[in-house]
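lol so apparently i was supposed to do this last week
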Amino acid sequence: MTRARHFALRSLAGLLLAGCKLGAPDGVALVGATLIDGTGGPPLADAAVVVRRGKVESVGPRASFELPRSTRQVDVTGRWIIPGLIDAHVHLTQAAGWAPARYLAWGVTTVRDMHGPLNSVISIRRRSNTGTVGFPRLYAAGAMIDGLPTTYSEAIGVNSENDARKAVDRLVSAGVDFIKIYTHVDPPLLRAILDEAHTFNVAVAAHLGMTDAMTAARSGITSIEHMTGIPEAVSRERSSLLASHYRGFFPGWTSFERSWAGLDSAALSQLAGRLVQERVTLVPTLILHETLSRLDDPAMLRDPALADVPEAARQEWDVPGMITRAGWNQTDFAAFQRSRPTQNFFVRAFATAGGRIVTGTDSPNQLLVPGYSEHRELELLVAAGISPREALRAATRNAAVLLGADSLGLLAPGKVADLLVLSKDPLVDIRNTRAIEAVMSRGYLLDTDSIRATW
Ligand SMILES: [Zn+2]
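anyway here it is w/ zinc ion bound
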């Protein structure tokens, strides 16, 4: 970065921050940027965005804009404004001490937490959502529901339809935002979970194993995580794939991940269309597939972005230990890499059929840096053939729809003022979402330099 550039960046952040020192972030008009509002529609050049009391008050072209009373105008000419990003598949509660600041500094203002010990998830969520600056807004599943034996000790294990219903009741009364089910949930358990969840109007996210994607979709799941259950729905080796999930998490994941390369593209396209008809949302987490396929690549461990992760957390990842536990070797990694183009094909087919795709990362699991991984996911979606505009929608409005949060993921009057100011055009190159000049969360401008200084 040149000195001049650095100065411009500091001065914008300084200008914006100066108006926020009074506490309540009242009355800021960001004028002159190109607005990408999250709908996937065309951008609005030379826009004016007025923020007051944590909300977007108005949005429109600068030409017809009049500075409202007691509003400070900040010139953001030559920049781009996008909604705050949403990472819809995280495990933040595993790393609640250090991960939240990373998400925010990278412009991820909302996350969807997929699993953790129920009581601690609920208390972390309460803390994060009572307006605490320094925490992304958190939507949480609490503890996931799994069949027996459960893969994770904090999961709620169920072995009968009655148990499955009780598990849903327990989670709903604890106040979770949605239900997450895991690999050992078979079709009868899943149907009981869904029936119970639907009486409470609660969404069900699925990391599938012993149930294929089509069966799960017909039963009424809301989202498919990691594209699980898709090979199981179309593969000629369907029964051996489903059986591998009975043998344990890693045998199941390994067979699933290896199987993509051999799948029939016509069958995949047809499945994509049927899942779209069933209104299932896809959270592909391409960054997870990409990372696991290169886990033995030393270049992965040298990625400069890993500097964002505290040393203790990096040691806890224990990548070599994970490879040993999984029993993966070079043949597996090569097979995982061969699966990537077919996974990309499926994402494209799903998008072409009109399906809702949402960004998720599985961070901060092994090598998945909180916040930064969201930008990598956007890049991988575009590499898979999704347009930058659609990729941005996956990270904003589509994700908000999945969360059932109408006030998020869109920059329009009345919506929450979560936004990023970028110095480069993300529609020209999606990697420009990383050129973050300012992050606004709930109307507060965050001093990302100060946040980073505390790492
Ligand atoms: Zn996960």
